[in-house]
Write a structure and sequence with these properties.
- With 697 residues, the chain is α+β, with helices and mostly antiparallel strands.
- The protein is built from 18 helices and 26 strands.
- The chain has an eight-stranded antiparallel sheet. The chain has a five-stranded antiparallel sheet with strand order 5-4-10-15-14.
- The longest helix is centred in the middle third of the chain and has 34 residues.
- The termini are far apart.
- The N terminus is likely disordered.
């Protein structure tokens, strides 16, 4: 029998992947449009985050990711008749028929048709990950494109308002509003009266400090006003413009009432394109060990005037850059995993970023803080950074460094006295020390193996993509301490929590053991990069021995167990993906092959359960598990049920990562950054990984 060299086998497998992806892209037009469970409209950070949770933009009011009202409304007047475009008020007005919605990485595109015109409405957020100055701008463009559909001329005016519930946590908080002029153009502002900057911490909260701003691209045809929303919309319906005076008598946000910042633009006859800008200046974003941190875009003493001027100046160039980025990324996602995978990536993109806040420390160091949305509200949670890390490693490793550095700085303080890594830095937006489990008080209900393994793997991945271990060297005592802990405790973990803490404590956790083993291998690789040759060899040898023991302890015939002492059980071994991505090669390829073959016999309608105990799953982990597949067919078989869930789930919330694979219903969690784990498949292609990661600055 003729033996085929391994390198040719790898090339053949790669060619199969490419051909299958190209075939999927070629047939993508035959795939029905995705119905997102929630559509990102304005998604910047955990506070400035507005979504449509209905099939049609005018079918319901817009909401904050928490589900509370965050109201924006849009109307259009065509030849004297007014239609609803965003929001369900005024209900007496008809909807303009919506014909399309598409979510792209930096844009959400709606199209409407009626009364002889076609209308395009795009929510454009230039979330370009390679440029932190642009990425951090808390401003979204709301772009209108109107053209005749019947060959005739039509007179068109548009209306947009942003309500006072955008600037308060609860409806009983009074607001103040004012009008200004910037470079001769009108500018409207609104904020809470009290301005309790960074005073509250928790999960189900909305911002109640800082100021909301609304401005237009140019003054032509513009009228603007501050008044109760019902009055503003009625005035536009009647006259096609807003009154010249304001009415500031209603200072309390109410459903369908309360003050709004309102703009109308008389477009004249079609075709025409205009845009508005909606921005939020939170003044201070994060409290980091008792000091207030400015948002990144403000670090050089820039203010709102600079923000708006720069946004007007840069609109056309940013639009061109963002369109190119969207097209390029969607093409690469299709090549990597097919059309369904590409659409999942597009939906996850802005959600991942919007669960974070980018701030500047006193010395200008960037810090990127994630919030645990609807899990417990923690800030800088290590096992939330870990599942989202593929996004940062792909698009800009500096963002991962900006997530890890605050954790590492905390870990080397005397107040953190445990031999393992921390879980979190506090409760958002106050990063003043761990609050989860035993915190700084006791080892009870900590995640010692989980978080130590996460940190070592992520630091090693950062070193791999950057080509140096300078970040690791800065924190070498902490990393070494955690490696020693895993060497002692990692192979056969004691009864403890892991990142899937909703499943409860579990001893002898096989997937957690994989994480520890790979973390030891990762530390060995860091030792090699930092010149610790003897330790590199020692830890590499330990990791190899542990991997061999693991295969014996976990073996259950045609698959591997959930826990070493529980025959007849199984679980997703998603942590195994780092053996491939980091080039550690500690486990034989047969481990992944056996697991994938077994998983394909255990799927439900909406995906692969997390393990044999329950029908629920984690969306991010399925994508990690699918990346273990050696052929595109198996990858697609695991991803397609996830796409079906996203398309059919009755839970209309920003993408949940924890759901029931039988009913398709949300179990908990929503709008979390962990969906950035969807991009792990892109890291499996070294050329793609290098292409995007090398752009970061």
């Amino acid at each position: 029998m003729t033996m085929i060299p391994c390198k040719f086998m790898r090339l053949a497998r790669r060619l199969i992947f490419v051909l299958a992806a190209l075939a999927a892209a070629a047939t993508s037009q035959g795939l029905a449009p995705l119905r997102p469970p929630a559509v990102p409209l304005i998604a910047h950070d955990p506070y400035f985050s507005i979504w449509s949770m209905a099939d049609h933009l005018a079918a319901d009011g817009t909401k904050h990711w928490t589900g509370k009202p965050n109201s924006i409304t849009a109307l259009i007047r065509i030849d004297g008749k007014t239609y609803r475009v965003i929001g369900r008020d005024p209900r007496s007005l008809p909807e303009l028929q919506q014909t399309r919605v598409e979510v792209l990485p930096t844009r959400t595109v709606y199209e409407f048709d009626g009364a002889g015109v076609k209308v395009g409405l795009t929510f454009f957020t230039p979330a370009l990950p390679d440029d932190l100055d642009i990425l951090s701008r808390p401003l979204t463009y709301i772009e209108w494109n109107v053209a005749a559909a019947d060959g005739k001329q039509h007179h068109v005016a548009i209306y947009f308002d942003a309500a006072s519930d955008l600037v308060v946590n609860t409806p009983d908080q009074p607001v103040v509003a004012s009008r200004h002029r910037l470079d001769g153009q009108p500018l409207l502002r609104m904020g809470s009266r009290e301005q309790p900057v960074l005073a509250k911490r928790g999960d189900d909260l909305r911002i109640d400090w800082g100021y909301l701003y609304l401005a237009a691209d140019k003054p032509d045809g513009v009228s603007e006003s501050i008044m109760p929303g019902t009055q503003a919309r009625a005035a536009f319906e009647k006259d096609g413009r807003l009154p010249d005076s304001d009415d500031l008598s209603d200072s309390t946000p109410r459903r369908g009432g309360g003050s709004v910042l309102a703009f109308s633009i008389d477009l004249g006859t079609t075709p025409l394109s205009r845009y508005l800008m909606l921005a939020y200046d939170d003044l201070y974003s994060i409290e980091y060990f008792e000091r207030r941190e400015r948002p990144w875009w403000r670090r050089n003493n820039e203010g709102v005037a600079d923000l708006l001027r720069n946004a007007r100046r840069d609109h056309d160039s940013l639009e061109a850059r963002s369109k190119h980025f969207d097209e390029e990324l969607m093409d690469d996602l299709r090549r990597a995993g097919g059309e369904e995978y590409a659409r999942l990536g597009a939906l996850a993109y802005r959600q991942t970023l919007a669960a974070h806040k980018l701030v500047a420390d006193l010395d200008g160091t960037p810090m990127f803080f994630p919030k645990e949305n609807f899990s417990n509200g923690c800030i800088a949670t290590v096992d939330v950074i870990y599942p989202s890390s593929p996004f940062m490693l792909l698009f800009n490793p500096l963002l991962l460094k900006a997530q890890l550095e605050p954790v590492m700085e905390y870990a080397r303080l005397p107040r953190w006295r445990w031999p393992f890594a921390p879980h979190d830095l506090g409760t958002y937006p106050q990063a003043n020390g761990q609050v989860y489990g035993g915190g700084e008080r006791t080892e009870e209900n900590q995640m010692p193996v989980e978080e130590s393994g996460n940190m070592l793997i992520m630091v090693a991945a950062l070193a791999r993509v950057e080509g140096n271990a300078k970040f690791a060297e800065k924190y070498w005592p902490q990393l070494s301490r955690w490696a020693e802990y895993l060497k002692e405790k990692g192979l056969d973990p004691e009864n403890q929590l892991s990142t899937d803490d909703f499943a409860g404590h579990l001893a002898h956790n096989a997937n957690l053991s994989i994480k520890a083993i790979l973390a030891l291998g990762a530390y060995g690789a860091l030792c090699e990069m930092t010149g610790h040759k003897q330790d590199a060899a020692s830890y590499r040898k330990t990791a190899q021995e542990f991997a061999r023991k693991w295969m014996e302890l976990a073996n259950d015939g045609d698959h591997y167990r959930l826990a070493f002492d529980n025959p007849g059980t199984w679980s997703q071994k998603y942590n195994l993906v780092w053996d491939k991505l980091l080039g550690l090669n500690l486990f034989t390829p047969d481990v992944a092959r056996k697991e994938i073959a077994f998983y394909l016999t255990k799927q439900n309608q909406y995906g692969l359960p997390l393990d044999n105990r329950r029908d629920y799953t984690k969306l991010d982990w399925i994508l990690w598990t699918a990346t273990l597949a050696e052929n595109p067919s198996d990858f697609s078989k695991l991803v397609s049920p996830v796409y079906r869930f996203v398309n059919e789930s009755p839970s209309r919330v920003p993408l949940t990562d924890w759901y029931d694979t039988v009913t398709g219903k949300q179990q908990g969690f929503q709008a979390r950054s962990v969906v950035g784990g969807v991009f792990v498949k892109m890291l499996a292609d070294p050329a793609i990984w290098k292409k995007y990661s090398s752009r970061g600055r």
